[in-house]
Amino acid sequence: MRFLIALLICAVPARAEIRVVTDIAPVYALVATVMEGAGSPELIVPQGASVHHHAMRPSEARALAQADVMFWIGPGLAPWLEKPVSTLGADAVGVPLIEAEGVHLLPFREGALFGGGDHDHSHDHGHEDEEASDPHVWLDPDNGVLFLQVIADALAKADPENADLFARNAKQGQERLRKIDAEIDEKLGQVRGVPFIVLHDGFHYFEDHFAIEAIGAISGSDAQTPGAARLAELRAAVPDSRLACAFGEPQSGDKLIQTVTEGLDVRTDTLDSLGAKIPLTPALYEVLLISMADSMVRCLKG
Ligand SMILES: [Zn+2]
Q1: Residue 119 pLDDT level (bands cut at 50, 70, 90)
Q2: For residue 43, how far is its CA from the centre of ligand 1 (angstroms)?
Q3: 3-class secondary-structure state, position 206
Q4: What is the Å distance from ligand 1's center to 22 Cα?
Q5: Please, what's the largest Cα pairwise distance for the chain?
């Protein structure tokens, strides 16, 4: 009898799992958080690759073509993904998170030096749209909280049997994020106002949320190689800026950082906004936020 029951249990066909793919590791982690206990997503942009300029390998294209649901930031971050996502299967759903209702958007910053002082962008809200916005939206933890909900809702439609699990996981993730948000806010209190620059203008959401703004960026938001004029502008401004730190990124060399800070007493560190150096688990997004804050404290405090 016992044998028979065991046999019956084994014979119940496994429920067909939905295939979920994600663009970057932070989105992977948010989706994996919501899916925990019901499978896990696949990652298209490998950790350590540059999301702005990635060339998809055949295995990545295949994963995308077979997806039931694709969560991605949107074409502003990864222009090369726009075409493959538009050719997803007829029953597949693409969810560009930057288009989520209620998402906090920031306009692009202009130039190599951001000015500072006159910091009021609140009047811009309402006019902003995702086309004209800085695409690095995941670095605002408020957006992370929103995305967990958006992901749970989209997954519930694709896999209604697990809707309760998705909702529960999302809620727990949101609670953890709010706690981490408050802890980071307190941690960064000790280094607010210390001048720093970043390698590419990809951290504005984090800076804005925690009120710790860079004075400039070597490359623009799209991470294109900067022109000579932009480099010269930064290089000229750095000696008088009391610059404490220049942040590089794990997926890029530090040649540009050296060009701008050469001969000056400026510390360097890295900001890992994509989680390139963080184990690929559901916790990656939370670890990413904490480690960015730790890098800032380490380098700015000296
Ligand atoms: Zn970027």
Answers
A1: very low
A2: 17
A3: helix
A4: 17
A5: 83
